[in-house]
What does this fold into?
Amino acid sequence: MNDTSVQSVSVSVENLHKQYRMGSEDVRVLRGVDLSVHQGEWLAILGASGSGKSTLLHLIGGLDTPDTGTVHFNDRDIYAGLSTAKRDRFRNQHVGFVFQFYHLLPELNVLENTMITGMIGPRRRELRDKAGALLERLGLSDRLRHKPKELSGGERQRVAIARALINEPDLLLADEPTGNLDRATGLTILDLFAELHAGGQTIVMVTHDESIAERADRSLTLENGVLAPH
Amino acid sequence: MYKVLLTFRYLRRKIIPYLAIIAVTLCVAMLVIVISIMGGFHSLLMGAGTQLMGDVKMETGPEGFVYYEQLIDAIEAMPEAKAAVATIETFGMLQTRGNRNIVVQVVGVDPQKLARVTSYGESIYWTRESLEKHLAESDAAMDGFDQLVEQERALYEKLDGASDSARARIGKKIEDVQDRMRDIRIGRMNLEIIKRYYNGTDPASHAMNFTAPPKHEGDRSADVPPMVVGLEVNPYNRRNDEGKYVIWDPWMGEPMSLTVLPITERGAVVDPKPRVFAAVNEFHTGWYEMDSKRVYVPFDVLQEMLLMGEAELVDPNDPTVVIGTAPARAYGIIVRAVDGVSAEELRDAIAKRYAAFHAAHPDLPPEPFMSIYTWRQKLRNLLDTVENEKNLMTFLFSIVSVVSILLILAIFYMIVLEKTRDIGILRALGASRMGVASIFLVYAGVIGAIGTALGTVIAYFIVTYINELHAWLGRAFGIVIWDRRVYFFENIPSRLDPTEVGVIAVAAVVAAVCGAILPAMMAARVDPVESLRYE
It folds into this structure.
């Protein structure tokens, strides 16, 4: 595991609160979460189903808005300091999302699904070459023209990871990345995360599985809306 | 860039957008067809007006007016006028073979002068070229005659052992083949009669000079005044399915009695005057009203028949005493403007000139009784009606187009609902709200553009082949939309105006995009977190 103590802070979350309305009830999901993620760190957040792990991940990635509290990314407040449009651009340029259900676009093939993140942002040269190289690295070079429905679960998740990495994000956010895969395939995905981490990629991963969390540098548990060391 | 990629991927894989494309296609085609046909009708009326009626016409009641020759000299001396011709117009009864009577509009005119003020010269049907063309087509048809005989034989063979329904179908085909054979044979025979009648002379010259061709051997044509008859006056000149005339019973050279009703200068009706004429040619303007009713006869002959020629005035108490001369009368004068002078400018100039002329000739009626009008004024009611009808049709079909906008709205609403997860994914990947909304606007724009292109192409073909299509509808289903007797012209007019098509095309694309605005706004407001929560 990497030594993160000497590295600068990448993400800093302070006193984060979020509540949802479910039917007639307000559910307080996050009740003052504090968190620091260092550059190059692989952090796992454990928690039971419905504990608010995904909500926390979405807030860190600028996809949702907190009720109160701040999220700083490299010292910049991504909610108070950025307009919605700028936050969209920030998400595109600095954050990569990997979801449990892959969430690939069914009409696009593997290459296009990988390139789409790059196409959303400012025009980049050689995007196609870069996506091809990335997919080759992930063992999908013979699947470029295939549609998501023609792929296995593991392959789909690798395409999703390629899509998340195409813009070389500072932060990779993974929401139960192995949750929809069999154990063996899940392990290959974790190996891939480990490889990325070894290359210096900062990763925040949420999971309910302790054995998966063990692969990370550090694990925290989300319980009753607050984080505690595991 | 991703918007274009997604637009084309969505287009390729879904059936729903094709419904929207069909809606846009139909609306565009409908509007272009309506505007082209109504616009074509309008411009045909305008063209026919100026070409067939001359620029300005002056006329009085059926009793006519005097000093018309001096008046024509005065008008032709005006810098605005190119030429003028006197006419006499009345209604008459034409008695054809077998004592069959046809009511016709009889126009007495000098054909040379008429050709200078109207397109009379171009409307002459039998010319050297047209006769050659008819004969060449007939030759080609005769060459294929053996094939028709063979077809008929083969059809008769098929009849043996065929079921009742098949026999009826084959019987209809045999009738069609026999009709074509009969048309070819009769057409050929009659063309030979016409060729023999003209006896090597230029047929058009007889229409231009009101002369009869020299008699050939065995010619029984009468030595009577000539007339030029509208092609549709003879009910035996029939058009086939291709719109070409088949000559079944040519009238050329045949004596026919024409009866007109003279009216004196004081408006009294005198006994009807019959006189025998012989047709020396026919004319075809395409204006059904004219082609089916009008006959041209020599001016002086009609003037004499209607008692409008110069006459001695006698003392009512002693008819043997001549007290003066009553000048000859005409019914109207048609005037053509010089190039660069509009019909309206010419009309105003003639009105001014006529006021001075009238001052010098008090026998003539003053202007309200001497109508001076342009062809546009003459056709004003018709032109206004067509213009109003065009606007009304455009308005009605525009309302139909609004329905298609609503259809696009509904279709895009469905597409956005179906694509909610995709929208969430794109938002998670950093697409802005505007970016997501613009995917659907680009998508609608592309659907609008494809629908517009298809609609324009379909409309182009329908408008171009509208008469063939109409003939086919009539043949196959007995549907007749365009009645020549109602719409003046024998063919359905059409005119594709690039500007009008351009406006419709732009409006259709804009309308399609407008239809997608609400669904696009809905897409922009999709909560990505909510849409990504579940598989």
